[in-house]
Specification:
The chain is of the alpha+beta class. It contains 6 helices and 15 strands. The chain is globular.
Length: about 260
């Protein structure tokens, strides 16, 4: 999700009834989704921003404007979706009715394996190498607006995409897109990025995520017992690898990101 959600909300609250979008008219109400249900809470002042959740993957609508669900994306390079695991792919592809879902997963297996062996020149791959445009469009629409592979259909789906810079100076910097508009505008800039992390790296959060990925049998084709690459030094300890885990027990695990280039 975007890293500028609070900045967008603050700007809109301070400029309530002054900002107008072609699809929803003048912004007269801004609200935050209530997690665990379909309700939302109207935000009346900047002090209410503590009610905006920026970390829950179950919501697709980051905010509601005039009662319409809005997914916030940061301008420039960003991620349309983070941490797509192999374990979820076949189920999601099948649910969405993608053409030959097993074949898509097999193609991704080959790409990940080649990347692990150093046979790919770069980790970002054109989506056209893996999907038809219709299938990729269906997948992206689901990931941005409708749900997530782990949690299924969201109780807070989004209807529009609001794109904004990290720091907002004026209303003209806010762009509200339908999904069709967003996809046509940026489809040439979207790529499938192969990312890795390690069981045994110093970062507790990254190590835990890697352990979680490696624990699912459906992820095993993307889990390797040898270490390729290395994690960045930890900000506090400056160590790359944690104590207490044998070097032989380290693993390299992979997942996918859908990345929008600048």
């Amino acid at each position: 999700m975007a890293g500028n959600e609070i900045a967008v909300c603050e700007f809109l609250i301070l400029n309530l009834n002054k900002v107008q979008f072609i699809h929803i008219g003048r912004v007269e109400e801004i609200a935050a989704p209530v997690l665990g249900g379909e309700r939302y809470i109207v935000l009346h002042a900047v002090e209410d921003l503590s009610q905006v959740s920026t970390s829950h993957s179950g919501k697709k609508a980051d905010i509601y404007l005039n009662g319409r669900g809005i997914s916030i994306k940061q301008s420039g390079g960003s991620f349309a979706f983070n941490r797509l695991q192999r374990a979820n792919l076949l189920g999601v592809y099948t649910m969405l009715g993608l053409t030959y879902p097993e074949s898509i997963v097999t193609s991704l297996d080959h790409e990940v394996n080649k990347f692990h062996q150093g046979l790919l020149p770069k980790r970002n791959q054109p989506w056209q190498n893996l999907f038809s445009e219709e299938d990729f469009k269906t997948l992206i629409q689901f990931l941005i607006l409708k749900g997530s592979p782990n949690l299924g259909i969201s109780s807070h789906p989004a209807e529009f995409i609001l794109e904004a810079p990290q720091t907002i100076a004026e209303a003209d910097e806010l762009l509200l897109w339908t999904f069709e508009e967003y996809f046509e505008q940026y489809k040439s800039k979207l790529e499938v990025a192969i990312r890795r992390q390690w069981v045994g790296q110093e970062s507790d959060s990254e190590h835990s995520r890697a352990v979680g990925i490696a624990s699912k049998s459906e992820n095993l084709p993307w889990v390797f017992d040898d270490v390729v690459g290395q994690p960045k030094p930890h900000k506090t300890t400056q160590k790359r690898w944690r104590d207490g885990l044998l070097e032989a027990d380290r693993k390299t695990v992979y997942f996918l990101m859908i990345e929008k280039k600048k």
